[in-house]
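During the reporting period the student researcher (J.K.) took over the structure-prediction task from the postdoctoral fellow and processed the backlog of single-chain submissions. One of the processed entries is reproduced below for the supervisory committee.
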Amino acid sequence: MFKQQKKPIGLNFHTIGFIACALLMLVVLPLTLSDFQINLLGRFLTYAIVAVGLDLIWGYTGMLSLGQGLFFGLGAYCFAMYLNLETAGTRMPEFMGLYGVTELPFFWQPFHSPIFAIFMAIIFPTLIAGLVGFMIFRSRIQGVYFSIITQALTAIIALLLVGQQKVINGTNGITEMRTILGATLAAPSTHLALYITTVIVLGVVYLGCRALIRSRFGRLLVAVRDDENRVRFMGYNTVVVKTLVFAISAGIAGLAGALFVPQVGIISPKQLDITASIEIVIWVAVGGRGTLVGAVLGAILVNTGKSSISTSNPDIWQLIMGGLFIGVVLLFPKGLIGSIQDMFARLVQMWRKPSYSPTPVEPSGIEVEIAS
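J.K. obtained the following structure tokens:
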């Protein structure tokens, strides 16, 4: 018997790239960007977090959810309640007094604690996604019908929030946020701290999702995407598998929302409507679904382009962005990362192809007569 040779220990390309990006985000950019740019990039990185969650269920499980904006917004609302209470101090939030509320609602009371607020920002969207997902998948609803249901759920909850003026300020949303853990939200040092926290959370979420898809459970997700019936016939409960991954993606979106709201200072029903969910899908499609890296890249590139183009061309920026989206989808149907991977694979194949051609065999000159 031959002993299996051990692979040399070393850093692979992915690890080197991850470390390089971490150094760029944590060291280089804070020293080179202004306070405004740091705050803006921090928001974009929260978008990247929710995009990674969508890629987990769309790219690897084949379920296109149009409700990620809802889970993102619910997480933001949970943490905004804490920020609003910290700003109000011993008083009630200012908007409640405008509507004649004399006592803080009972479900607001626990949100005096930032730990509870973070916990609920993750758990609340996770529970909703788990409950809704179980009912959908148990009925074997999939494909475009799953997308329509998640879109309808987003529209319904957004409308419900609009009508809750007394408890969450309705259309205006929660706005009175001035401090976080005693620090002033408008201070540059707070912006930097929130940015670094967002970078770290993005790295943890990315590594966690990458470990998940490389595990046996991740291979099961890909199998469900490719042929769910065969997976079911093999004895796996696909309802549980799909419900679990849908709930995980919702929890990731809620965490992203909790990081988003202190960097913006406002959350309203408008920020969790159908349009927001469609934009998340665009980020993943542009970057390349089924790659995780593409979700991060797409979220940053699209929002950076949106910010730059809307500033330089405020009248026609939507037309320009629409044209760019169409062009990217037509030219790079697999997204930017997917197209780069295909191009790299073709180059490797060409490089490995032998550079010589086999020598043609000369005829021997022996003729064989066939008897008629």
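The committee noted the following: Residues 1-10, 368-372 have pLDDT under 50 and may be disordered.
J.K. will present the remaining backlog at the next meeting.
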